[in-house]
Amino acid sequence: MKNEKLIEMLHECVRACNNCADSCLSEDNVQMMAECIRTDIVCAAVCKTTADILASDFRNVEGMIKYCAEVCEQCADECEKHDHSHCQKCASICRKCAAECESLEVTLAKDQSSAV
What are phi and psi of 88, to 5 degrees? Predict the structure, then answer.
């Protein structure tokens, strides 16, 4: 399957974000975790949608890949503000996912420039 490595990374990010959001709900001060939970939920949704799109043969993916990388970075930034192990793990996976997205962005840009 095309983009299999990135699709797997996106699914791993979805799992990490969902786990982080769920774990944040069990923290003593849930209100303090509200932005982390919100960001986790959005990141999981964007990563899942991006994986679904990449699994198809749809070609116009550059904007989605770029947005996904941005959201993953935002999620990592938010999670890194918290010392909880689930937040730190999520931040690490989000950073890896963003890097994979950026790698595909570079590849797509090279493919487009060579096609012109």
Answer: -65, -40
